[in-house]
Each structure stands twice: as structure tokens, then as C-alpha cells.
Amino acid sequence: MTTQASSASQTSDERVLHVLEFPGGYTRSTGPVIGRFLTGLRSGRIYGVRTPDGKVLIPPTEYDPVTAAALGAADEDWVEVGPAGTVTSWTWVDEPRGDHPLDRPFAWALIRPDGADTALLHVVDSGSKAAMATGMRVHATWRAERTGSVKDIAAFAPGEGPAEVPVLAGEAELEPVSVVTLPHRLEYRLRGGTVWNHFIDGMAVGQIRGTRCAACGKVYVPPRGACPADGLPATEWVDLPDTGVLTTFAVNNVPAAGAPEVPFISGYVLLDGADIAMLVLVSDVPWQDVRIGMRVRAVWVPEAERTRSVKNLKWFAPSGEPDVPYERFEEYV
Amino acid sequence: MRDVAVVGFAQSEHSFSDLGWTEADLVMPVVNEVLETTGLKRSEIGFTCSGSNDYLVGTPFSFVAALDTIGAWPPIAESHVEQDAAWALYEAWVRIQHGDIDTALVYGFGKGTVGDHVGISSLGYDPYYLAPLVPGHVAMAGLQARALKDAGFDVDPDPTAPPATDGAAAVILAAGDVARRVRARPAWITGIDHRIEPHSVGARDLTRSDSARQAAERAGVGSGSGAVDFAELHTRFDHEEVLLRRELGLDEKTVVNASGGPRKADPIMATGLIRIGEAAARIHDGSAGRTVAHATAGPCLQHNLVCVLDSEGQD
Cα separation of B168 and B51, whole Å? Predict the structure, then answer.
């Protein structure tokens, strides 16, 4: 899992809101079978795919779940089903989420469209739980704007129909659906515990804090609760100077959230007295002049502007001291 | 097949609110405890395998941070499954069958208290037909509960989710003589199997679980010498016990989830491994001769693992 964008802000109860999101959503190719089904939905039609033993699967799959036979290669393997069908199971939702298909109480239901042998998961807009029953008849209602998504079906409504499909402007010119994007956004409420709180307290006053392993004596920064070499608690606190040596770096030509304008330099700095290099930004120096072994010092935001955040440490800049020979830090590269 | 036993099990004191625990905070105590109870050193572990899920805390590669607790330097033989650690245990069991190592450490951890479970579980569903609708795990369970109710089972058709939980668990597996050396009464794995069904819940008969039945048959639940005294089932929803009892062939005499089960604590990604640990602990302490553990993954019991544990080895 990778985060394209993530933001954090303090909430009133000391927990931090952490948002994990891909603003545009994951982009996925559909392949021929799923693409054909979604293209059908865009036209306001529900298609199932026929298996060699004559079953009609909805939603269609690329392979028969029983025999693993490839499905959907021939036109005659595709069967229009529905638009009415039968509820085979359901469950009620009193409080819809913002990302649910309906903004009022509804039922999730498994709906077997007429002519199909399996059921589609979708929503039934029945108005009340009392109106729901296994075996009830429902029909698809369609969105006016359809894009080739399972959400092109707005909902299923009780009864046989009519199944009116709003005309989609310019449909004749549209290419078959071959790609879908799924928005991706999750929220977390995190509490900084254990070593993190003490580290961030240091950051608030411009002090970098590490932890030392009692067994092997190694100093880790940012601090960690366990020594990765021994697997034992590393809980002794060490105040580290904000000077060190650049052990390696990269020149970045792609903009990144939180980084200065491109090109910017990210690098590993081994702080004096630490046993692990810390990933930081390097700035206040032309990128052509950055070199491995360069002595650097932290640049902090002015005291008056400091918050309880790692953002207090803006970046590292050359300290002007002579370079450090490679042999002195090769163990840490 | 080599005789392999669960020789150690530890689980955290699970929390139902976020205490700010990091991956290392969750995992280290149980790893240290399980090593201590077996007397094995970190350097004596032949293989390490873990189970976790990055979406639970929204941290990419969160399992890497947990490696701090196992002493991964100098380099060790290690693997990870992005699912419940019961499947990490299965991988470790297979790894020991290769014959060149005798021990494996398995752990799983989950921080369930900080995230949005409906959103997280939905992102685990297929991205074309299910995830865009954001049904979530509770609604999926509701569809199965309703199907069982309609089929005449005495179940609540409106299931509730177990409490969000932070926690971890660790197990040590050992083969043959090593197992006998480190544990007076090893819990021998006499059968282990897992089977999976189509992801689409509308393509399945939700009143049955063919995968659970097949896994149970192949693991030998019904073919052993003695009765099953205790079963630990990965039942996050009450109605699942009714279904699993039938598919696993457990009768009324088998005590299910004496530990309290996932309904009491559900540290996702460790919950299934804990079932194996609890079932083994009943053999370790002499209160059972033969037990069964079950783990599940996917919507409506899609993927099921069954493990049979016995106080007597096969040799």
C-alpha cells in the first residue's frame, strides 16, 4: 500500500486525524468480461455470462467458479437479464454513510435478476425495513448520468417496474468501458503513545531525541520502542545534537507533498552520536554541490512559530565544517 | 509429513481503546513471552512469519516496524502474509515440512481501534462490483444471517460487530524432538487445511460453507481417534457458530470458544491465530486431548482454515 497524499491535523481530544487517500482513486483495467458488463450498465442493461453447463452468472466473472472454464469469449455467451428480479437475502441500514449509494435508510440485498442463476449485491430503496422481505420482487432504477459503474444502477425499487432508462447523451460515440477508478479515502484517529509522545515533545522545543538499547548500546532516531538488532526494549532516552553527516542522498525532480520546490534533495543524515541514519530534506545548497560525507546542521522554524510537530525541523543545511571521510560512517550506509 | 506441534502461545492483554501502541509495542511482549515459555532463544528460531494488514492503521508496510521486535539483524529468514496470522502459521507449518528447520515463530497483530472498519473491509472487496458500494463487513454478515434465518436457523438476522480491539498474539511451532524438548505436552498438528470459495457472496449458498466443510474433512476433524473436546472458531458474528458447527461436524458435546472467542476480543489479523493458540493451550495444560481451531477471511466465511490439534503425535 502506498500513500499518495496524507494529511494530519490535531483534534480537540489530543488524537490526530490521519487521512489516507488517493484523490483520483485507483485506476484499474476491467478486462473484457467486467468491461462488457459495465458497458451494459452504462446502456441501462444488465448482462450475465453463461457457463458451459448453462448457468447464467451475475455479476459476470472471467472464469467459472466451479470448473475454471474461461467465460464470455463468444457473443452468444452473453445474456440480458432482469431488469426485475427477486431478493434472495437482505439486511437493513438505518444510518447510511456519506459514501453509500443512498442518503436515506435502505436495504443491502442480494438480487437475482430474472434469467440469472446468481445474485447481485445492490441496494433496495424500499422506504422502510418493514417493506423488505426475502422473495420480494424488485426492479432496477437507473441514474441519468451513467459512466460504466455498478453505481449506474441507482437502486432497486419494489415491484416489477416500469424499468425506464433515461437516455444517455452521446452514447453511440462512447468507447466500451475498459477502465474504472475507485476513490480511496480512509480516516484514522491516532493517539501518539509511548516513544512518539516524548519525541514530539522534544520537537516542540527544537530538540531531537533518540532511544538507546540497554543490551547493545545502539542509539535510534527517530526513537523506537524496540531494538531491531536484539528485539529488546530500547527505552533509555538520549538528547542528540542537531548536527551530523550526510550518508547518502537523492535529487528529486518530481514534486512531493511537504517538500520544497523541485529539484529538492532528500537524504540520510547520521546525527552525531546516533547509530542509524535519519531520512530528511537537505536545502540551502545548490543541488550540484551536495555530496556524501557533507557535514550538515538542522534548520528549525523560528521559536515563535513552533508547534508540536516534526515540521519544526525544516531541513538540514551544510554546516561549513570539513567533509567526513567515508570510512568513518560506512557502517551506517 | 513431519510431526509439527504448537509448543508456545502468548496473547496480549487486548485493548478496546487506542493507547497509542506502535506495532513494536503490540508485538514485543507476546514474542518475548512465547520465547520465554519455550526457553528458545531468538537465534534458535528457524523461520518467522507474521500476519497483519496495512489498512488497519493506514501505514504502508506497517509489518516492517514490527520486525524490530524479533531481532531481524543479522538477517533472518522471514515472511509476511497480508491476512490473519493463522495463514502465517500455515506457511510456517509448510516451511517446517521442508525438513531443514525445526522451529518457527508466528505472530499477528492488529490495531482495530483507530480506523473505519466498514471502509477498510470494503476496500478488501472486489473493486468493480462491491467496493464502490461500500457495503462493509457487518452488512455482508447481515446477508448471511438473514439467509440462515430464512432457512429456519435460530439466529439473529441483524448481527452486530465484535468490539474494535488492539492486540497481538504469537505462537511457536516445533518439529519432532525439539517439540518434546521444549514442551512437556506439545499440541501436535495432526491436520491442517484451508479452502476458499468465490468472492461474490451472491454466487454462493450462504446457508452453507463448502470451504469450511472441505477443510474440516481434509484436516480430519471427523476421522480422529477421539472426540473433539474444545473448538475455537473464528466467529466474529453469532450466527457463524451455527453454520460452522454443522460444517465442521461438531456435536453439542464440543465446547465452542471457551476462551470467549472473537466476540469478546477481536484483534483483527491475530484473531484467527489466537483460535489456534487457545486450542493448543487446552492441550498444553492437560484439559483436552483433542481440539479443533478455525480461522476465516473474506466476506461471509469465504476462506476457511481448519487445524486439528492432538496430545498424541502421529509417530
Answer: 10
